[in-house]
Design goal:
504 residues; alpha+beta; 5-stranded mixed β-sheet; 14 helices; 17 strands; elongated
Length: 504
């Protein structure tokens, strides 16, 4: 079974099923129209079963048309005082008794000492009916949001900078509205009409079925001749009237707020012929289409990846941003109990893991100590082998130490094997350096020595410089015999690589 969290969006008479096994997976798997609420759990469970998804918990966003929305701007900053003020205002605004409703609110933004608050109210009987649809199918609703808040979260992912922005999800029977300023939500709203108003008006004027109007909206070029051109011109007039009416609604919702410099649109109507140009001409603002921003060319999962409610479906799965939580009060009992059981289970598992970890740590420490000792012995031997490349690899550490001490004594002129050297190797090299011509450029690579001989390997620019090095050895009067054993030209560097052997 595939495990993960399912996000279900109910909006504009559509149901969107969004599943994420992880945050990088292609999430949306189903987007379809529903005829009645009773069809929702059956379709969800059937689709989950067909796709081998273990469906036992879900996050749900309900249709905002079944709720009451309110927006407040209050000169209050402290959270507790703000909550009390909002509750007081809602008691006056809502025509229901407090025991009949569930409400929630969030502060979308704070500017110049003003808190911008959006609130939602839903009747308990409606909430109970919705939750029971899922509970009867064994699906736990972990949280319950509203589609317009989820749509605002989707728009927040597209809004950039601090410019005022308005998001519109133009559905068939409703239009979701959100006002964003400086990356925070200032206002939410639902316009109680959508694309169907344009379709019905145009169909009534020309005596056409609504399905035919839907086709003309997207594929006007199929109508040829004068009648076809007249139909396109008429549709353009209706479209301009629709957009102009929509802009008046936006102006009414904004009130005294600054006109937005940026619009984010979603919905099937945005694909209508000439819609973008018409909207930009009326709004005189920058326009982004959410579907086109989110889905790259060829990135659609299925044919349900366009249309109203889609941005909302993705907004439900957004972790950050404004949200409502209607699983409160008497409807939060199962969730709270589940959380307590989970916390107790996690605590028990944690204690068991702690004891197991202590035992494993003690045993591992003992094993690690033995391994570390063996590792150190091997590392020490390797250091000796690297320092004494000409010595057999099979010697014990004490033998390596004795040989290395003898070699060090040779360098300082100390007594070795019963004999005393009159001049140390280091002193000899210092004498060579003092008599070596400063114009000679020489680089020594290696030094090998025994009781009477020193072997040097180096590199110069010419044979003359090699000879100069040899003469410098002779000038020291320390060495009995100085021989150039080998001198060859390096093809890669064009320098002379040589080897000199001197006898003490």
């Amino acid at each position: 079974m595939k495990n993960g969290l399912v996000y279900i969006t109910l909006s504009d008479d559509k149901m969107h099923f969004l599943y994420r096994r992880d945050r990088n997976a292609d999430p949306l798997m189903l987007s379809t129209t529903v005829q009645s609420d009773d069809d929702i759990p059956r379709m969800v469970v059937q689709f989950a079963s067909d796709n081998d998804i273990e469906l036992d918990r879900a996050v749900v966003a309900m249709d905002g048309r079944h709720c009451m929305l309110r927006n407040y701007a209050m000169p209050i900053q402290r959270r507790r005082q703000l909550d009390q003020a909002v509750q007081f205002e809602m008691d006056d605004d809502i025509p229901f008794e407090s025991n009949e409703i569930i409400s929630d609110h969030f502060r979308g933004g704070l500017s110049d000492g003003i808190s911008y608050v959006s609130a939602v109210v839903v009747r308990k009987d409606q909430l109970a009916d919705l939750l029971s649809l899922f509970e009867t199918q064994g699906v736990e609703v972990e949280s319950l949001d509203v589609d317009v808040a989820a749509f605002a979260r989707a728009c927040l992912t597209q809004a950039t900078g601090g410019e005022p922005c308005v998001g519109l999800d133009i559905g068939r029977e409703r239009t979701l509205f959100c006002h964003i300023v400086e990356g925070t939500v200032r206002q939410l709203g639902i316009i109680p009409w959508g694309e169907s108003r344009l379709v019905r008006d145009f169909a009534a004027k020309h005596g056409l079925p609504e399905d035919e109007v839907d086709r003309i909206m997207v594929l006007p070029e199929r109508d040829a001749g004068e009648n076809g051109q007249g139909m396109q011109d008429s549709f353009r007039e209706h479209l301009e009237g629709f957009v102009d009416r929509l802009m008046r609604e936006v102006y009414r919702l904004l009130g005294s707020a600054e006109w937005p410099a940026h619009f984010i649109l979603s919905g099937e109507i945005v694909r209508a012929y000439g819609f973008k140009e018409c909207f930009e001409g009326v709004a005189e603002s920058r326009l982004d289409i959410w579907d086109e921003s989110y889905f790259k060319l060829g990135g659609e999962v299925d044919t349900g990846q366009r249309g109203s409610g889609l941005a909302t479906a993705y907004g439900v799965a957004e972790d950050s941003g404004c949200r409502f939580n209607l699983r409160k009060g008497e409807f939060a009992g199962n969730t709270h109990a589940s959380v307590q059981v989970k916390q107790l289970w996690y605590a028990t598992c944690l204690l068991i893991l702690m004891f197991l970890s202590w035992g494993i740590y003690s045993y591992a420490s003992m094993i690690a100590g033995e391994r570390e000792l063996a590792y150190l012995e091997e590392a020490t031997a390797q250091v000796y082998r690297d320092s004494l490349p000409g010595v057999s690899d099979g010697m014990a550490t004490v033998q390596y130490r004795s040989i290395l001490s003898s070699r060090m004594a040779m360098l300082t002129g100390e007594q070795v094997d019963g004999g005393t050297m009159s001049v140390s190797v280091i002193e000899a090299l210092r004498a060579i350096s003092s008599v070596l011509d400063r114009k000679i450029h020489v680089e020594f690579f290696s030094l090998s020595l025994d009781g009477k001989r020193i072997g040097l390997q180096g590199e110069t620019r010419s044979m003359n410089e090699v000879e100069g090095v040899r003469k410098a050895f002779e000038k020291t009067k320390i060495f009995e015999d100085v021989k150039i054993k080998n001198a060859i030209v390096e093809k890669r560097t064009n320098k002379i690589r040589f080897e000199i052997e001197v006898t003490r």
